[in-house]
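Our preliminary data section would be incomplete without showing what the modeling component actually yields. Below, a chain of 135 amino acids is followed by its predicted structure, encoded as tokens that our downstream tools consume directly.
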Amino acid sequence: MPQIRNNDRAMFEDPVWVARIWGRLRALPLPELDGQVPIGLPKALRFYRYRPGQRFKMHKDGPWHEAGHTSKLTVLIYLTHGYQGGETDFREFAIHGEAGMGLLFVHDTWHEGANLVEGTKYVLRSDLLYGPSVS
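Predicted structure:
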């Protein structure tokens, strides 16, 4: 839908990379939400590329459903730096990501990938799947 997003997107499955990313995330103090705990990432990783003039207008993310589990948080990992514009804008504040920086937020949060002015911005996009607590 070019009236909402005109950035490029690719998806692929790589269990090794999913396991690596999950291994780093699970070491963080991730929140319990709605009585459920984080259990992993979906098997498909999504990559976004933004070039000058590209953006992803204000929106909320929807949940990802996989293997009987539902995601509750969006995971963004910034892969590049040195670009201008392209902030992840949350209305009240904006994040200018740098390579290696990660960002987690609840799906039901308004945000946009602002217009990129110069350079190329690459982002890995995933979701944090939740399931019942095993206590």
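The CA atoms of residues 72 and 121 lie 25 Å apart. Residues 8-132 form a domain with the Jelly Rolls fold (CATH 2.60.120.620). Preliminary results of this kind motivate Aim 1 of the renewal.
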